[in-house]
Amino acid sequence: MSNIPKKNMEGSFSEVPGKYCVRDIAMADEGRKLIEWAESRMPVLMELRKMYSKTKPFKGYKIAGCLHVTKETAVLIRTFIEAGAELSWSGCNPLSTNDAVAAALADEGVSIYAWYDNGPDFYWCIERTIDIEPQLTLDDGCDLIDTVHEKHQDMAKNYVIGGTEETTTGVHRLRARAAAGELYYPVYAVNDAETKWDFDNVYGTGQSTLDGILRATSVLFAGKNFVVAGHGHCGSGVAKRAQGMGSNTIVTEVKATAALKATLNGHEVMTMEEAAKVGDIFVTATGVKDIIRKEHFEAMRDGAIICNTGHYDAEINITELEEVSKSKRTIRPNCEEYTLKNGNRVYLLAQGRLINLAAAEGHPSEVMDMSFANQFMSHLRLVEAKKADKAIPIEVMDLPVEQDEFIAETKLKMMNMAIDKLTAEQIAYINDYNAGT
Ligand code: RBV
């Protein structure tokens, strides 16, 4: 294994070359308990585990995964393994790995390269997962797909069967790649499934973003001017929850229809230029860079708190924040105080990286249950097509509604909830173009 490139970071790690590199394998016991906790709240994924643990449809297939190493992700990983897959995993954000969970996974034999704050070795970790020569890739943010396409083109063109993408910005990147004719294998846009974006993005982001802000600051939300940039699935969830906690919510947008929805949802709509002057707490949820810039920092009130919940750390221009500041110091974990040249203090949380995973635990297990059921079933789809020798078009693919229906029905069943069924007469009525006034 001497041909494995050396990583950049030094310090103490638990490492078996060619197998895993985590912060401290001694944390495994703590991690196992967290995973069990998540398992007890992810009934759909557990049902899938039960369904496929005997037939092992993934036997002989290798999956490289690049997705936040959380207790929920561990439940997905265990489910793939029970279904016969061989896996190798890395985190998809330098600040989102739970070291205890990573230790537990390494300890139970998973090939995993992940530790909290792995910035200098972010791509080293991804490369190690590609070492297993995966036929399938599972991504969140598209960094793995990108690495395979840019650095392992032969593998991308001739070996990988397909992949999946978990998040909004990742799907944007993928669509851009496909439009440029540079996508070499089919990828399912898991993010765009109804049982993903209508739940994970809205309720997951809504709750976990507030959770992250609270853990990093412990401020009172009631009575605060709470600015949310972006009113898509994620931003609308954050604004809704902040509203519920008693904040005066303000939304900034570039899309007229989204802005209109925000006003009707009870939020005030204004430009960032105006919002910067009155906001107490700012959250970016746009997927676009430079949402909060120099002129905005300079206009902010003393004590303003800024954070981001989008996938990349590009939404807050930190270089410009440094430029307009005269000093900075760490106040508490994930909370940096910048004193601007105009004397005001601005607090940047989690280095502008996604606050919900960097400062809290990411989305709650209950919503990740549906997102990860989508991940599992999408990979199953790719493998089944391969086994049946069915050609899959090389494009960014949406998931069929049947998958959403299965996941939603199973989730409801597990929650002990029943729904009505249309009668034959009602179905006939719906399909009758003559039925009217
Ligand atoms: N996300 N995962 C978690 N607890 O494992 N929390 C959030 C978790 C995912 C979510 O699906 C979102 O699309 C993505 O992180 C953003 O990177």
Descriptive account of the structure:
The longest helix has 23 residues, at 365-387. The strands form two sheets. Strands 1-2-5-4-3-6-7-8-17 form a nine-stranded mixed beta sheet, sandwiched between helices. Strands 11-10-9-12-13-16-15-14 form an eight-stranded mixed beta sheet, with helices on both faces. The protein has 437 residues and is an alpha/beta fold. It starts with 13 loop residues before the first strand and ends in a 7-residue tail after the last helix. It has 19 helices and 17 strands. α1 crosses α4 (99-107), α5 (122-130) packs across α6 and α10 packs across α11 (233-244). Helix content is 43%, strand content 16%. The structure holds 1-(beta-D-ribofuranosyl)-1H-1,2,4-triazole-3-carboxamide. 1-(beta-D-ribofuranosyl)-1H-1,2,4-triazole-3-carboxamide (RBV) binds next to α3, α10 and α17.
Summary tags:
437 residues; alpha/beta; nine-stranded mixed β-sheet; eight-stranded mixed β-sheet; binds 1-(beta-D-ribofuranosyl)-1H-1,2,4-triazole-3-carboxamide
Helix count, DSSP H or I runs of 4 or more residues: 19
Strands of the largest sheet, in order across it? 1-2-5-4-3-6-7-8-17
Which spans of ≥5 residues are poorly predicted at pLDDT below 50? Answer: none
User: CA-to-CA gap between the ends?
Assistant: 76 Å
User: Structural class given helices, strands, pairing?
Assistant: alpha/beta
Strand percentage lies at 15-25%
Bound molecules: 1-(beta-D-ribofuranosyl)-1H-1,2,4-triazole-3-carboxamide
| Helicity range | 40-55%
What can be said about the biggest beta sheet?
Answer: 9 strands, mixed
Using the CA coordinates, give the radius of gyration. Answer: 23 Å
Judging from the principal axes of the Cα atoms, what is the shape? Answer: globular
Number of strands: 17
Give the averaged pLDDT, no decimals. 97
